[in-house]
Amino acid sequence: MTALAWLIPCALLLGLAGLVAFLWSLNSGQFDDLEGAGWRALQDDEPPRK
Amino acid sequence: MAQALSTGHDGVRPHALNGALGERASVGSDPIAHAATTTLAVENMHCGGCMRKVEAALAAVPGVAGARANLSAKRVTAMHGPAAVNAADLVDALARAGFTAAELAEDTADKARADDRDFLKRIGVAGFAAANIMLLSVSVWSGAAGDMTPTVQSLFHWLSALIALPAVAYAGQPFFRSAALALSSRRLNMDVPISLGVTLATAMSLYQTARGSDQVYFDAAVTLLFFLLVGRFLDQRMRLRAAGAAANLLGLHGSAATVIQPDGTTLRLGARALLPGMRILTAAGERFAVDGRVVEGLGEVDESLITGETAPRRVAPGALIHAGTVNLAGSLVTEATATDDNTLLAEIARLMTAAEQGRGRYVRLADRAARFYAPAVHVLGLATFLGWLATGHGWESALTAAIAVLIITCPCALALAVPAVQVAASSRLFGKGTLIKAPDGLERLAEIDTVVFDKTGTLTLGQPSLAESCNVSDGVLAAAARLAAASRHPYARAVVRAAEARGLAVAPAGDVREVAGFGLERSGPDSAERLGSAAWCGAAAGAQSAVYYRGADATVTAFAFEDRLRPDAAEVVAALQRAGLATELLSGDRPEVVSAAAAAASIERWQARALPTDKIARLEALKAQGAKVLMVGDGLNDAAALAAAHASLSPSTAADISQTAADAVFQGEKLAPVLETMAVARTAHRMALQNFAIALAYNLVFVPLAVVGLVTPLLAAIAMSASSIAVTANAVRLRSMRLEGMR
Question: Domains in chain B, start-ordered, CATH in brackets?
Fold first, then answer.
């Protein structure tokens, strides 16, 4: 029983963390351009500006 | 037209507050959030490299702080100081980098994207709740067989309730709202049984939890919502993509014009800002933005988009010019006239309105299914409840059985059946350059049994090429091409293309002079070389569509041109005929040209010199015979016919009004997308029916069990998830399926 007392909150918190992460990524526009994001990963970084 | 078609869930609107919160969160961390942004549609941005070039080109424009391209939407947003940057400069910068771009008016896409995000958030919440409740439920199911004490079971049920209640209240809103809307207008839609099932199941489960019984359906209620939201989201995605593509097309084809101001300076204005009386300068190769009367200059105008006639018309001051036609030679100054004066455009607009009304409302497959299904579900649920009461059971067990029936029949799989297939089909077509613009376009395309083609620009390429019949020697062709390379006239370009096709090197001669209305000239040491009209080269005028070349030695060679069929036109027509479809050709062009094209494409029925009214009359006649007609056309003169036909397709070179009217737009030189689109549409239709069958099969097995009260919460959850997954998996097959011709 004591195991349940902390396992269940743990499970719920983990799930909640996933949900929060999803909502965060949604709001920060990570799903706006699924095609382009894949290409961006392959591009070289821009040379630093002076 | 298509936008006006409504389905059962029109009431779904984003929560205004969520939209506002989303907006703020997305720009909140951006240092230049308060500066202005300009969004452009970029037509030919296809890969990561293009994306980068587009961003770099825009960032190099003075005043632009940065640019962010969106490859999926084919758009780029430039961030700049307020009012510091002119959209035309951005378009020019992109044009120099080799991209066709156009400014987008603030359209409905932002609102649609807010809708999109709203659904994703609800899906996220429902998914989280479903997973966690399922975790608890699985423990109860497995524990019930073992040694779980009633206390722990009750605790788990209360925890489930704690998660389920807020989740249902939030994630279920789109359905509740749509159901309320339907009920308030005394209709039934699919959302009524969904809302009823979910609400009753949640309320009943709460009551049973308080009583400590094990008839608890929280998991089923939330999983149900999750799958339904996914279905609704896919449907919404489809509309969003269609709307975005349509907005891009409109932006790209809404032309701009160079206006000559009274003080002699010029100004670039969008077509919508033009007023009657303005003097507009149109360079060779440009499209006329508005109707007008020529005041200065001689030239030739390509009117094939309007009349279907391939031979250009010569114009002199005083001639009337229609918007959408192309200036072929020389700069023309026109004075804009009011569009309303123009009988042709007004006529076409009137015909289109009439045609759209005549087509009536098409009822989508899912709505047709819902029309029968929704009442059946209610009757079944009520009958189960009354049946249990009549057989002497208490109201509790009667209600539990009725809820089980509602949950099992809840159209999870049905709600996914069509959207999943449509999204798979449209993304497959999108990948091949065909945009489905109308949300119900695929469904209508699947029912086609007759295909009517337009000739110019549809069956043919709509651009002249050197006729194979005229035997020009390589030397003459190369010499003519050197002159022609200096001009944008379509005939000159055709000469250059022909020379390149023969592998001749075309080095543009530097000192070529273009004389508007006559041709090109290059003065040599002793005599001039000329390329142009018969009079210009001193030849006897021959057939139409001809250009003459007079070499330095004064020998004159005639070049004849033809509007060649698209390379695969004959094949595509043959494939359509093999598949049992009737084919016809309706053109505004001259009979001899149309009959030649019909013969080359082996189309037996053809009609030449067809006015827009004639095209509609022919379509009406076909409709009266019970035919479902697909109109494939590109011209302004086809716009009304495109709107009148059961379904319609346009090449991306079509007049903008026609692209707006068409259900789908295809890109490229080939006609094969017509075949591919129809094959995909038919397969999609078949797969949607398969999906309905899968969903119904599940219902046939589980509904009788639910009616007699044998469905436990476990069984309800499994049946629902399994049928939804089966339906989605079936739909996904379409993306990679090999389609062997038309079936």
Answer: 28-108 (3.30.70.100), 256-288+292-337 (2.70.150.10), 435-461+566-677 (3.40.50.1000), 462-564 (3.40.1110.10)
Question: Whole-angstrom Cα distance, residue B509 to residue B496?
Answer: 12
Strands (E), B341-483: 434-436, 450-453, 460-466
The answer to whether the Cβ–Cβ distance between B132 and A12 falls below 8 Å is yes
Instruction: Please state, in angstroms and rounded to a whole number, the distance separating the CA atoms of residues B150 and B130.
Output: 23
Is B26 within 8 Å of A28 when comparing Cβ atoms?
yes
Q: What is the pLDDT of residues B567-599, one digit of tens each?
A: 888 889 999 999 889 999 988 888 888 888 888
Please indicate whether, in this complex, the C-beta atoms of A27 and B22 are within 8 angstroms of each other. yes
Helix residue ranges per DSSP H, B146-217? 150-171, 173-184, 191-211
> What residue type is B413 in one-letter code?
A
Please state, in angstroms and rounded to a whole number, the distance separating the CA atoms of residues B199 and B179.
12
pLDDT band at B16 (very low <50, low <70, confident <90, very high): very low
Residues of B with a Cβ under 8 Å from any A Cβ are: 22, 25-26, 47-49, 51-52, 69-73, 113, 117, 120-121, 124-125, 127-128, 131-132, 135-136, 152, 159, 163
Q: Which of B6-15, B181-190, B591-600, B606-615 has the lowest mean pLDDT?
A: B6-15
Which residues are CB-neighbours of A6 under 8 A, at least 6 positions away? Answer: none
Residue B219 is a catalytic residue: no
Phi, psi of B45 (to 5 degrees): -100, 110
Q: Is the pTM of this model over 0.80?
A: no
Going by C-alpha positions, the residue among B416, B382, B417, B418 that lies closest to residue B398 is B382
Six token digits for residue B588: 């505004």
B215-228 pLDDT tens trace: 788 888 888 888 88
Q: Which of B116, B440, B454, B638 is catalytic?
A: B454
- Helix, strand, coil % in chain A, rounded to nearest 5: 65, 0, 35
Q: Are B315 and B278 in contact (CB under 8 A)?
A: no
Contact B221, B161 (CB under 8 A): no
The predicted complex's ipTM stands at 0.83
DSSP state of A49: P
Chain B residue with minimum CA distance to A2? B152
Query: Helix H segments across B549-671?
Result: 569-578, 591-600, 612-624, 639-644, 656-661
In order, the DSSP letters of B447-479 are T--EEEE-IIIIIEEEEEEE-TTS---HHHHHH
Q: H or E segment at B336?
A: strand B332-336
Which residues of chain A neighbour B22 with C-beta distances below 8 Å? Answer: 27
Residue B165 has pLDDT above 90, yes or no: yes
DSSP β-bridge partners for residue B451: B583, B630
pLDDT tens for B599-621 read: 888 888 888 888 888 888 898 89
Q: What is the pLDDT of residues B372-416, one digit of tens each?
A: 777 787 788 889 889 988 888 888 788 888 888 877 776 667 777
Is B51 in contact with A40 (Cβ distance < 8 A)?
A: yes
